[in-house]
Design brief:
Blueprint (H helix, E strand, L loop, with lengths): L4 E2 L20 H14 L4 E3 L9 E5 L11 H8 L2 E23 L2 E19 L5 E7 H14 L10 H15 L9 E2 L7
Parallel strand pairs: 1-7
Antiparallel strand pairs: 2-3, 3-4, 4-5, 5-6
């Protein structure tokens, strides 16, 4: 089932999400709904807070990036199979030079900005069967992981912008939170009466 995506301004996007336990009700159905919602919105990742659930769960499908002609063969190989469920993920460490790349967010439609992130992340997470994994991601895979991980920490990509950039997009963010800027997918606006 395609769920509405929570828009900027909803307090759920600012909470540090809670751990997911094996007895979480209808978890597999929730994961299926998240995949459908993400695909419907043409996203490469979506975190549970973006559908109103403050739990440490996100899904990523970065396989479309594998088509990019500007990436290295190693990165192409990683991205071509980078479709995963992440439960209770944790960044153990980050390394490498920070690099900028234009990011957007399904909860913040029509805003895209360059965000600086570390090149490599070392992570642990559980899959949908609660098996624990350790992984290292670099480049775009690391970036998408960091973006979705931020969501379960109550952080948005706009928080990482310079104060000048934040001032430049402030009006647009207010418009999104009031439901005056939408998207071509269903959204749920916190500050809009009757929704």
């Amino acid at each position: 089932m395609i769920l509405p995506i929570v828009a900027y301004g909803d307090p759920v996007l600012r909470k540090v999400a809670k751990e997911v336990t094996k007895d979480y009700p209808d978890l597999s159905k929730l994961i299926t709904n998240m995949w459908e919602t993400m695909d419907n919105a043409n996203g490469v990742g979506i975190a549970a807070p973006q559908i109103g659930k403050s739990i440490r769960l996100f899904v990523i499908d970065a396989t479309p990036f594998a088509e990019d002609e500007e990436i290295t063969p190693e990165e192409k190989e990683t991205l071509s199979t980078f479709k995963k469920v992440f439960i209770n993920a944790k960044i153990e460490s980050e390394e490498g030079d920070e690099w900028a790349f234009e990011e957007g967010c399904l909860s913040i439609p029509q805003i895209k900005e360059d965000v600086w992130r570390n090149e490599t992340v070392h992570v642990t997470y559980q899959d949908e069967n609660f098996n624990t994994h350790k992984a290292t991601y670099t480049g775009l895979a690391a970036r998408v992981f960091q973006h979705e991980y931020d969501h379960i920490e109550g952080v948005l990509f706009t928080d990482k912008l310079s104060s000048l950039k934040k001032r430049l997009i402030k009006k647009k963010l207010e418009q999104i939170s009031k439901g005056k800027i939408g998207a071509d997918y269903r959204m749920k606006h916190f500050n809009v009466k009757g929704k």
